[in-house]
Structure formats: C-alpha cells, structure tokens
Amino acid sequence: MFSRERNFFGGHGIVGAQVPIGTGLAFAQQYRGEKNVTFCYLGDGAVNQGQVYESFNMAALWKLPIVYVIENNKYGMGTSVERSSANVELFRRGEAYGIPGKQIDGMDVVHVQEQAAQMVADVREGKGPCVLELQTYRYRGHSMSDPAKYRSKEEVSRMRQEHDPIDNAKAVLLKSGAVDEAALKEIDKEIKAIVGEAADYAQASAEPDISELFTDVLLEV
Ligand SMILES: Cc1ncc(C[n+]2csc(CCOP(=O)(O)OP(=O)(O)O)c2C)c(N)n1
Ligand SMILES: [Mg+2]
After folding, report:
1. Residue % of the chain over a pLDDT of 70
2. Is 154 inside any structural domain?
3. Total domain count for the chain?
C-alpha cells in the first residue's frame, strides 16, 4: 500500500528497512524547507535491527523532523519482547543519541493523539527526532501459518476484553454524549463498505507486468 498524493510511503517487507527510508524522507523535508513531520513506524521486533541505530544517529545529528513510533505489540513474529530484547524499555532506545522517548498506552486513542501532537510541536520547533513507544497488542498470529502457541488464550481474551482500543473509544464517545449507538453503527457500516470496496478492487485488478520489477529501481543517466 502506497499513496504519493497522501504522503503515505507504504510498508516494507524487510523488517527495519522502513527506518532508514523514513529517515531519508525526513531529510528530504528538511532539505526542501518543508514544514511536514515524518512518522516512521516500527515494531518491537524491528527495533533490534542495526539499521535503526544508524538512522537514529543521522536523525539526531541533523535534527531531522521525525517521530519514530515504536508499536510494541509484545511480539515479533513468534517471539515475545522479553525473549528477544536485552532491554525492554524500548522508548529509551534513542538515548545514546540524545533522542528523547516516551512510553504510552497505545490502546487509548485520545491519549495517543495528545502525546503525538506534543511531539509534533517539539519537532516543528526544530528540537530534532523523538521516539514514541505505543504499548499495544496483536490479537492474531503473525500470519495464517502462525497458530500463536507462544501465549495463552486467556492472555489474548483478557486484552480483548479489557484493552480493546475501539471498544474503549466507543465507550468514551457514548459517555460524552457526542454520538449515540445508531451513529456509531452507521460509521461502522461506512468503514466496512470502504474496506470491502478496496478488497474487491485489489482482487479484480490485473497482475502487474513483469517489467514493473525494474520501475523506479534503476535510473539510467
Ligand atoms: C530482515 C528481516 N528479517 C526477518 C523477517 C521475517 N519477519 C517478518 S515480520 C517479522 C517480525 C516483526 O516483528 P515486529 O517488528 O514486532 O512487527 P509486528 O509483526 O509485531 O507488527 C519477521 C521476523 C523479515 N521480513 N525481514
Ligand atoms: Mg511486534
């Protein structure tokens, strides 16, 4: 998924490789004098890749306008953070480069919005990069071939029941009186239609031509 018009530069198959790419995009923004701020997302598994730290160094050195968002959903492919990270305080990973970090509840949408807005304000002031660790959770296995035997069913259902971000946001909205159940159902229907349409479009589209393998990969000058 990629949208040049919306400045959405997609996901990448190589775990961690999005970090130097995101850092490069932030460099381009600074170089061109744009006011944009890059949000670069990485997981708790990706955070142990070497290229993340090469990127942190350059981002701090050049005070690049970038927020590194670490989505700590407790698991890499099939390995818990505790089994794979020597230090599980992921928000501190930029400390060696002077990059400030915060760890927050990533299941609370209002809190995430407030904290992210604060970070964007700091970045726009020219303070350089920062790290926002979102504590979150992955309900399903990594892929269809992952039966997720590395955790208990109770853990998953407890997270669903007590921490689901959509249920929580719904409760906050209803309590505030801003919307009622019917309005939320309408939004749900609308979103399902958009997603359904996108899936149908993807499935009905032709396979790309084999020559596309070389598009934007090599520039002959
Ligand atoms: C360099 C590299 N190593 C291994 C893989 C295989 N792989 C794909 S996703 C993944 C786990 C990533 O974990 P995390 O960063 O926590 O992201 P999440 O799946 O939780 O979103 C791995 C090891 C890969 N795609 N690239
Ligand atoms: Mg993960």
Report:
1. 100
2. no
3. 2
